[in-house]
């Protein structure tokens, strides 16, 4: 192909993609679960969660998620359940109640359940003082049985991290860490109220490696206010010198109707959908050229990392932390707003910290809402997970595992017809396969199988 023909083909593809974005970009869930948290209701409560925990088999390993809803300062882009706190006593008393909640879960389980994974999220887990961190781990180990092979991970803020904290966490078993970077452009950082030069990130990485934390993940974002492709690529130029095992590249979700502090961001500074798409594609091309394997929609991993291996072998999963190798059927969430899951359904703790504290102090599992899963929910959940992880799913295999869908997915396939016509997906002999062109639109493909999408559309960020 001549250079002129190549340029023409690229121009035509760009025009086609721009047309598809204009037609299909919409507010859609990230599908870290199905049904999504938007469908949880108060009809499921503490008693249901206790009953479901009592049904967890003793021989199965569970996963733990512990939410720390505190930060030194509030980043304006953040959509997490967190708040700025500077009083040590507030965090100390929160840790006390986390330990109490772990005991409540242990009582419902009827044993010290074996745990294969622990994830400390937030917020900023490294806001917890070293003494309180030691107490938290001691309390968790009294309530649950951690094997020597357990993965213990934490989301960390490099700007507030200390070497002393890293050493304490490593002493307690930390072996995987995620550092929040987002973007290193000073202009972008000022627009989102988050300030950390590359030297701060590199220093945090050095501390973690020196302490024996063997796996490093970096979290980046595109679509931030004032951000350009050059900003994102310059950030990648710097952070890839650290050679992290994994990089997550999330699209900023501007949802000020859900997170009022996002109103501090000037919407006129946000890149439009075409620029957001261009940023994501430029970053993906950079990372694959740098030797990273693309994982699902927005993750990248070195080929030897377990996440990349799981993706290549069809063992990748998706949960509320994103793409994962975690195949545990039970997730026990501790802390305000944490989500838990068993095969029977989902629960979510009180998001308002005051309510969570009152429930735990009163000796109750602090569940505010949830959802009991139906057979059709489980069936569609597996379809959506395989699409998000593998970009394809064989519907007959899903029906073999879960029984036929009531309409044998006829309604979903009908909703996919326009996407088939536009070359985003191929449907043949029960195989639904997302094309290379359609991969950025995979959430739209998943939406075709989502029977409860329309009522909750306003709760989600943009797809592109």
From TrEMBL:
GO terms for cellular component: cytoplasm. One of its GO terms (biological process) is protoporphyrinogen IX biosynthetic process. SMART domains: Elp3 (SM00729). Keywords: 4Fe-4S, Cytoplasm, Iron, Iron-sulfur, Metal-binding, Oxidoreductase, Porphyrin biosynthesis, S-adenosyl-L-methionine. S-adenosyl-L-methionine 1 binds at residues 65, 122, 155. Pathway: Porphyrin-containing compound metabolism; protoporphyrin-IX biosynthesis; protoporphyrinogen-IX from coproporphyrinogen-III (AdoMet route): step 1/1. Transmembrane segments: none annotated. Its cofactor is [4Fe-4S] cluster. Residues 56-298 form the Radical SAM core domain. It catalyses: coproporphyrinogen III + 2 S-adenosyl-L-methionine = protoporphyrinogen IX + 2 5'-deoxyadenosine + 2 L-methionine + 2 CO2. InterPro entries: Coprogen_oxidase_HemN, Coproporphyrinogen-III_oxidase, Elp3/MiaA/NifB-like_rSAM, HemN_C, rSAM, rSAM_horseshoe, rSAM_sf. The keyword Oxidoreductase applies. It is found in: Cytoplasm. Its main location: cytoplasm. S-adenosyl-L-methionine 2 binds at residues 77-79, 123-124, 182, 194, 219, 253. One of its GO terms (molecular function) is coproporphyrinogen dehydrogenase activity. Its EC number is 1.3.98.3. Binds 1 [4Fe-4S] cluster. The cluster is coordinated with 3 cysteines and an exchangeable S-adenosyl-L-methionine. [4Fe-4S] cluster binds at residues 71, 75, 78. Monomer. Belongs to the anaerobic coproporphyrinogen-III oxidase family. Involved in the heme biosynthesis. Catalyzes the anaerobic oxidative decarboxylation of propionate groups of rings A and B of coproporphyrinogen III to yield the vinyl groups in protoporphyrinogen IX. This is Coproporphyrinogen-III oxidase. It comes from Brevundimonas subvibrioides (strain ATCC 15264 / DSM 4735 / LMG 14903 / NBRC 16000 / CB 81) (Caulobacter subvibrioides). The lineage of its organism: Bacteria, Pseudomonadati, Pseudomonadota, Alphaproteobacteria, Caulobacterales.
């Amino acid at each position: 192909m001549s250079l002129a023909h190549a340029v023409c083909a690229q121009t035509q593809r760009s025009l086609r993609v721009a047309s598809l974005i204009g037609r299909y970009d919409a507010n859609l869930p990230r599908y870290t679960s199905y049904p999504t948290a938007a469908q949880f209701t108060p009809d499921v409560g503490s008693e249901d969660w206790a009953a479901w925990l009592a049904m967890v088999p003793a021989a199965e390993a569970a996963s733990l998620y512990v939410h720390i809803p505190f930060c030194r300062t509030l980043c304006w882009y953040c959509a997490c359940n967190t708040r700025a706190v500077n009083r040590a006593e507030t965090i100390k008393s929160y840790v006390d109640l986390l330990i109490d909640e772990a005991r409540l879960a242990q009582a419902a389980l009827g044993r010290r359940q074996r745990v294969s994974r622990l994830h400390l999220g937030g917020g900023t887990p490294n806001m917890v003082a070293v003494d309180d961190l030691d107490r938290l781990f001691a309390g968790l180990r009294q309530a649950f049985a951690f094997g020597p092979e357990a993965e213990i991970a934490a989301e960390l803020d490099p700007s507030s991290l200390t070497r002393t904290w890293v050493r304490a966490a490593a002493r307690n078993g930390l072996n995987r860490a995620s550092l929040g970077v987002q973007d290193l452009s000073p202009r972008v950082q000022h627009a989102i109220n988050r300030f950390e030069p590359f030297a701060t990130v590199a220093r945090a990485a050095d501390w973690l490696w020196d302490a024996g934390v063997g796996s490093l993940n970096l979290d980046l974002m595109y679509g931030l206010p004032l951000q350009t492709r050059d900003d994102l690529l310059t950030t990648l130029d710097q952070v890839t010198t650290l050679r992290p095992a994994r990089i997550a590249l999330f699209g900023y979700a501007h949802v000020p109707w859900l997170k009022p502090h996002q109103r501090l961001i000037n919407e006129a500074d946000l890149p439009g959908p075409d620029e957001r798409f261009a940023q994501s594609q430029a970053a993906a091309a950079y990372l694959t050229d740098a030797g990273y394997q693309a994982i699902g929609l927005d993750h990248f991993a070195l080929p030897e990392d377990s996440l990349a291996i799981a993706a290549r072998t069809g063992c990748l999963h998706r949960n509320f932390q994103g793409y994962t190798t975690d195949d545990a059927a039970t997730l026990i969430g501790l802390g305000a707003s944490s989500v838990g899951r068993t095969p029977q359904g989902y629960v979510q703790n009180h998001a308002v910290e005051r309510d969570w504290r009152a429930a735990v102090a009163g000796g109750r599992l602090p569940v505010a809402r949830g959802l009991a899963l139906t057979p059709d929910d489980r069936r569609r959940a597996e379809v959506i997970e395989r699409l998000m992880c593998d970009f394809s799913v064989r519907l007959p295999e899903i029906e073999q595992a879960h029984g036929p869908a009531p309409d044998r997915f006829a309604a979903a396939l009908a909703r996919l017809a326009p996407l088939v016509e536009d070359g985003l997906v191929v449907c043949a002999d029960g195989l639904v396969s997302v094309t290379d062109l359609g991969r950025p639109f995979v959430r739209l493909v998943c939406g075709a199988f989502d029977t409860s999408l329309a009522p909750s559309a306003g709760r989600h960020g943009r797809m592109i």
